[in-house]
Amino acid sequence: MVLRRLWAGPMVAALLVGTMVRRLAGDHVGKSKKILERYVDQPPVEQGVLERMVAHRFSTTPRDRWPGRLESVPIGTIMPDYLYLRWLSLLHLFDQGALSVIMGYEDTDYYRHQVNVNGAVYAKKKVAKFWRTYRSIKSQGFQENEKELPLILLQCGSATVRVDGAHRSSVLRHFGFKSLPAYVLGIADLRSWPVESEEQRRAIEWFLGLDTSVGMEFVVEK
């Protein structure tokens, strides 16, 4: 009962048990002194505001009136190389099965990043949810789920902000997909929306002011 109260779902509880087993096995030696690396590409505040703004727009609009245009987008645009490679060690554990995930997830860059950003409890939940996404796509293929947002990209010239779909697209890239359907929104879409707060106005200005001269893919990890 304690585990069920602390961890959302059996997989998270299994990850906790795996941590205990590893420590009993002795492979935790020195880890308490290890400094987890902190990545420099943390999402700016404005990106979070923009993502929530777009997500709210999609979730409160009928599907046949969703903004933007539905396009087939190269998967490297949705899940760029640097981020895919960072998550690859965890995807390889998923390939090997639940026991490998339980015994090895703490050594992955994905988990370490989540710990740095959100803490260990949330990080375990993220790993468990990622694992469920992997298993669902592996067994059922890529299917639209009305409970989830579609894959969404904001584009300003050559700069891209991914609003939703990072975990799904990483699994699909891992399985060999070359492109995915995604809703692509541009500057005109954002300018046509009512701005409800100063925070939203600053977020839109931040997005419109991204330097696109270097062809930057501004798709950062959360």
Average pLDDT: 79
How are the strands ordered across the major sheet?
A: 1-4-2-3
Q: Number of helical segments?
A: 11
β-strand number: 4
Based on CA atoms alone, the radius of gyration comes out at 19 Å
State the share of residues found in helices, binned by percent: 40-55%
Structural class given helices, strands, pairing?
A: alpha+beta
**Main pleated sheet:** 4 strands, mixed
Q: What this model shows, in words?
A:
With 222 residues, the protein is of the alpha+beta class. The chain is built from eleven helices and four strands, in the order H-H-H-E-H-H-H-H-H-E-E-H-E-H-H. It has a four-stranded mixed β-sheet with strand order 1-4-2-3. Helix 7 (109-118) crosses helix 8. It starts with a helix and ends in a 14-residue tail after the last helix.
Key terms for this structure?
alpha+beta, four-stranded mixed sheet, disordered N terminus
Short description:
The protein is an alpha+beta fold. The protein has one domain (2-208).
Topology (elements, then pairings):
Elements: H1 2-6, H2 10-25, H3 45-59, E1 69-74, H4 75-78, H5 81-96, H6 98-104, H7 109-118, H8 120-140, E2 152-156, E3 159-164, H9 166-174, E4 179-185, H10 187-191, H11 198-208
